[in-house]
């Protein structure tokens, strides 16, 4: 279910409608196929007009994935700190963008959809990459508060942030593909935990490789 604590009535209503449309789109794609999951069919199952559909999602693919631009923007606007591992903090932020309009059952739906239509993962990663400037600014802010980067300029923080983001996005892409292709997710760790653990191992492997290449 959506975590709507702290949201006003209008925001909660929007979150509920967004989730209803997303669930309808994902279920239709799984039941009838992506081509048959038309905007009209999705709207009909969700009990909304096509005009309302477009108030939430620009395309049916975004609806199937649950990418709500307003919710994503709100997630980015949250004040975030980085108290520990920067790469893990960035992974948590990117994951929050993936799940901006919900979690729980929607995570399972998203996994099923991506397993059936793997090209949609590429679309989701592209949408996250389109937020590069905002994500880089957040990471640069973390670096500016890190004593290890105290001697760097603002421009150097931003350059480093873009490099870190690029590495993270590539690693997240691999991580999420492994998560989506899990042959038996019911017996594995929770959907929110498995990708993070895989990502952490991937970053550790990257660190080992970089050390050996120096």
TrEMBL record:
<dbReference type="InterPro" id="IPR050109">
    <property type="entry name" value="HTH-type_TetR-like_transc_reg"/>
</dbReference>
<protein>
    <submittedName>
        <fullName>TetR/AcrR family transcriptional regulator</fullName>
    </submittedName>
</protein>
<dbReference type="GO" id="GO:0003700">
    <property type="term" value="F:DNA-binding transcription factor activity"/>
</dbReference>
<dbReference type="Pfam" id="PF00440">
    <property type="entry name" value="TetR_N"/>
</dbReference>
<dbReference type="InterPro" id="IPR023772">
    <property type="entry name" value="DNA-bd_HTH_TetR-type_CS"/>
</dbReference>
<dbReference type="InterPro" id="IPR001647">
    <property type="entry name" value="HTH_TetR"/>
</dbReference>
<feature type="DNA-binding region" description="H-T-H motif">
    <location>
        <begin position="38"/>
        <end position="57"/>
    </location>
</feature>
<dbReference type="GO" id="GO:0000976">
    <property type="term" value="F:transcription cis-regulatory region binding"/>
</dbReference>
<keyword id="KW-0805">Transcription regulation</keyword>
<dbReference type="InterPro" id="IPR009057">
    <property type="entry name" value="Homeodomain-like_sf"/>
</dbReference>
<keyword id="KW-0238">DNA-binding</keyword>
<keyword id="KW-0804">Transcription</keyword>
<feature type="domain" description="HTH tetR-type">
    <location>
        <begin position="15"/>
        <end position="75"/>
    </location>
</feature>
């Amino acid at each position: 279910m959506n975590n709507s604590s702290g949201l006003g009535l209008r925001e909660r209503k929007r979150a509920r409608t967004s989730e209803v449309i997303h669930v309808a789109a994902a279920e239709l794609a799984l039941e009838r196929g992506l081509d048959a999951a038309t905007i009209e069919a999705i709207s009909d199952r969700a009990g909304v007009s096509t005009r309302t559909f477009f108030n939430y999602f620009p395309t049916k693919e975004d609806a199937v994935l649950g990418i709500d631009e307003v919710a994503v923007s709100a997630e980015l606007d949250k004040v975030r700190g980085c108290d520990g591992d920067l790469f893990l903090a960035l992974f948590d932020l990117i994951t929050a963008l993936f799940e901006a309009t919900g979690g729980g059952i929607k995570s399972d739906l998203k996994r099923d959809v991506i397993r059936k239509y793997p090209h949609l993962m590429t679309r989701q990663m592209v949408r996250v990459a389109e937020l590069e400037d905002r994500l880089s600014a957040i990471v640069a802010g973390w670096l500016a508060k890190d004593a290890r980067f105290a001697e760097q300029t603002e421009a150097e923080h931003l350059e480093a942030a873009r490099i870190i983001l690029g590495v993270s996005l590539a690693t997240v892409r691999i991580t999420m593909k492994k998560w989506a292709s899990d042959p038996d997710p019911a017996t594995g760790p929770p959907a929110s935990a498995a990708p993070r653990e895989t990502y952490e191992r991937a970053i550790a492997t990257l660190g080992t490789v970089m050390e050996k290449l120096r």
